[in-house]
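Technical annex B. To support the medicinal chemistry partners, we prepared a structural model of the target in complex with (2E)-2-methylbut-2-enedioic acid, based solely on the information shown next.
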Amino acid sequence: MDSCQSCHTKPINVSDSETHENAQCKSCHGDYAELANDKLQFDPHNSHLGDINCTSCHKGHEEPKFYCNECHSFDQKDMPFSGAKKKAPWDNGWDQEKIQKAIAAGPRETTQVLVVGAGSAGFNASLAAKQAGANVILVEKAPFSGGNSMISAGGMNAVGTKQQKDHGVEDSVEWFIEDAMKGGRQQNDKKLVTILAEQSAEGVQWLESLGANLEDLKRSGGARVDRTHRPLGGKSSGPEIIDTLRQATKAQGIDTRLNSRVVKLVVNDDHTVVGAVVHGKHTGYYMIAAKSVVLATGGYGMNKEMIAYYRPTMKDMTSSNNVTATGDGVLLAKEIGASMTDIDWVQAHPTVGKDSRILISETVRGVGAVMVNKDGNRFISELTTRDKASDAILKQPGQFAWLIFDNQLYKKAKMVRGYDHLNMLYKGDTIEKLAEKTGMKVADLAKTVSDYNGYVAAGKDNAFGRDDMPLNMTQSPYYAVKVAPGIHHTMGGVAINPEASVLDLQSKPISGLFAAGEVTGGVHGHNRLGGNAIADTVVFGRIAGDNAAKHALKT
Ligand code: MEZ
């Protein structure tokens, strides 16, 4: 690098997405595949974040920000530019004076649909709005797209798919609704759940039509049949879906801006949403006029203050969420008088790696893992709903549990190899050795495994009524991973109607404002079932985008 133009345009004009700069990185260093480095214990360029901007981590003029370490704790001392000075973050929250100035200056740009948040809901909304004939700007505050969906592992629930047919799974829309309502303690908005169920198969087909592999099927907690659709070969579903959506959005030429945080929704005197103020990393505060705005900003599981306020009992809990889940959409919508549904309902996922932020996917239990306490005794059906499993773990000595499994599962569930790479697994050639390594009681664990293998052979779990036991535990080596509950999903959020319009305090649609995904409340009631979040982002993301486009095109 011998001049500013090694990285920048002349004159220097850096877009918020740092697109030109990233193209320069790749033109010299090659793409991620070419950067693979055998010397590294983990190749950060080959991670589940997918094809993200180089400048997400390498800042050029300032100290690098190693995003992996938001969840992991990798050594980063050799990272390029690590000697550079630390700068204050560009995004320091809401600067009211600058926001008001941007509004007073009038819109710098105009679009028909503005989508806020580039996770699965935002991508789906953008693609649907574009398909319906609207022009779209998609803004994302992080230096990378993907949101929480990108790090999701489990899959997407759907009923009536070709996959279910091929696997001989009998299911029905009614069962899907009943399971979701039962899981949600009957507090879900049934109209929304019905839409979720009815449009779920089409959602899977749509993702497949864009190139996603969702061929595999498994069961998630609280579901009576296998309806969680996943990539074949054990790959995590989030990166598969997000990479597909990223590419589709690019192919559609949708204007996607990273490092661009929406800091205010702009309403006119009729209380119609007419745009938003964006704070861009390089472009400062500016207003985009939009006929429709779609909030797809995700939940608030990483906003400690919001958790402490809405769910004080969880304020000290770890979170499996991406750093992006800071509740922006809830705050933006509240400020203009939106109504909230179940805003205080927060889900703890029972199996987050103990003292970590790494989710041990429900898939591991779905594929066959068994859950035991510190002594090696089972205490609940592994496939119960998350709220029940989390409560049960918190009642065990030490408030943690072990997931145990054998080599059959290790070979089947690819994600487990990831946990192994992260040194999260304990391993023993025999059950006794595993007990010794983990501190479980040898006799207790041996009896648990022998009883469980008996239940698998008999096809009936006499101890806890687990209704799906796909694997016994007979093939050495044996593994254990220590888990405890962590914040995973905020069920509550802005109230929407079946058209995905955001409702005001009188339950009337706020003209021009739509929302989808975890920023909304109502779909999941008081407890979400595994696999229903991705379904929500796809189904309601598309509905929100489509209706936002229709609204924009008729006004
Ligand atoms: O939907 C989810 O949150 C999910 C399936 C998570 C997981 O355990 O993988």
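Notes passed to the chemistry partners:
The pocket of (2E)-2-methylbut-2-enedioic acid is lined by residues 152-155, 220, 359, 361-363, 530-531, 533 (CB under 6 Å).
The mean pLDDT is 95.
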